[in-house]
Amino acid sequence: MTKLAQSALFAFIVALAIASSAQTPAQTLTGTVTNATTSKPAAGDEVILINLTNGMDVAGSTKADAAGKFSFQLSGPPGPHLIRAVHQGVTYHQMAPPGTSSVDVNVYDVSTKVTGLSVTVDVLRFQADNGTLQGVRTFAVNNSSSPPKTQMNDHNFEFYLPANAKIEQVEARAPNGQPIAAQASPQAEKNRYAIQFPLRPGETQFQLAFTVPYSGKITVDPKPLYPAEHFVVVLPKTMQFTAANPAGFELVKDPTQGDNLMEVARQAKPGQALSFTVQGTGTIVEPPDEAASGPQQEPQPAQGRDNRPGGGLGAPIDAPDALQKYRWPILFGFAVLLAVGGWVVTKRQPAPANSPAATASTMPMRPTSVGTGAAASAAPTSAASRSTMLLEALKEEIFQLEVERRQNKITPEEYEKAKAALDQTLDRALKRQS
């Protein structure tokens, strides 16, 4: 009788499991991979399904068929996923929010050199103490190739840094992507570096923090290698800026940047002489929160700068709009610069607990930052890195969801459903990280 009871109980459990699975059929996520260079299906491209619910877990892999189609069976409760398509060695991503049943991914042919590559904005930020100059450089690179192609080679994006510069961290951000760790490699020519990161069609951002030995005065020659709409130098108000060619720069006052000095050169050409000298010491002060800064004003050229030949460049009428969309990269650069400054001061000598140096050194660095030595070569595969990448992806998806709601691209019901699922996943990720 005991064996019969055990057998009956086992059969009951199996039947219950079968009935449960029948009531909750597996979800299917389908999509199409299109070669946007040729406007044809990307047949044979590898497609990877990444589950973002518990990090960056690979949940499946397949190949796009002759029509570029792919399909995945989703298991478990609804959650956010990421579709990764690999075309000619370059990856492309597309988010799949909870409840999504179809995702389309565009990929592009790869070329070692594309036309239509330009720098929208190149921002150099400096601050200094007695002995060290800390810098952060941000590039916004636009790939407007036609037909659209991805540029990729061993020295894909090159630039110059001041002599004896030591790179502390590098980040790269693909179009519509999140910042990830990257590396800048020194080239044969002195003070020239390259970042081996694909330049996909659209805007790619690079940001690197570096330090330079400093005796109170230094001359910097950026040697632009690409046409740049705006080349910007930002300094604390206590430091001085002197351009080798004063007519090439305009001092722009922007209330959103506080008292920091902002020198702008517009429509810079490759090889153009943009050498300048900075001297003095000071720390960049991060501007107050935009919401608390009151009504915005149009940046105006500084007074007393029209004594140049021909009366100077005049008011940069279109400069404010062009720089406006790069406010957040600039603000983030301020935070990175302050953090690097704190790191340098802390490394040089211990600081009292309540000193400004100690305060600066406690500022959080971005989790994807690259350090020096072994940390520079380590891939972000730890649990903390995976949690951070998940949080970044969720924040990006929440932002896109809000944009679609404001543009009336989704119904209120769809918005509430997706928002609830994202909030639940975000809460779980935050709990795990804490």
Q: What is this structure's SSE topology?
A:
Layout: H1 2-23, E1 27-35, E2 40-41, E3 46-51, E4 57-63, E5 69-74, E6 81-87, E7 90-96, E8 102-107, E9 110-111, E10 117-128, E11 132-143, E12 150-151, E13 157-160, E14 166-173, E15 180-181, E16 184-186, E17 192-195, E18 202-213, E19 217-220, E20 228-235, E21 240-243, E22 250-253, E23 261-268, E24 276-279, E25 300-301, H2 319-324, H3 327-348, H4 356-361, H5 374-377, H6 383-406, H7 412-433
Outline of this structure?
The chain is built from seven helices and 25 strands.
Query: Helical element count?
Result: 7
Number of domains: 3
Largest sheet entry = 9 strands, mixed
Basic shape: globular
* Average pLDDT: 77
Low-pLDDT residue spans? 16-24, 290-325, 349-382
Structural class: alpha+beta
What CATH calls the topology of the largest domain is Immunoglobulin-like
| C-alpha-based Rg, rounded | 26 Å
Provide the spatial order of strands within the biggest beta sheet: 15-14-18-11-10-20-23-22-25
Total beta strands: 25
N- and C-termini, Cα separation: 52 Å
Q: Which CATH top level class of the largest domain fits?
A: Mainly Beta
Summarize the amount of helix as a percent range. Answer: 10-25%
What is the name of the CATH architecture of the largest domain? Sandwich
Approximately how much beta-strand content do the residues carry?
25-35%
Written overview of the protein:
The protein is α+β, with helices and mostly antiparallel strands and 434 residues long. The protein has three domains: 23-110, Immunoglobulin-like (Sandwich); 117-375, Immunoglobulin-like; 381-433. The protein has seven helices and 25 strands. Strands 15-14-18-11-10-20-23-22-25 form a nine-stranded mixed beta sheet. Helix 6 runs antiparallel to helix 7. The radius of gyration is 26 Å and the shape is globular. The relative contact order is 0.12. Residues 16-24, 290-325 and 349-382 have low confidence and may be disordered.
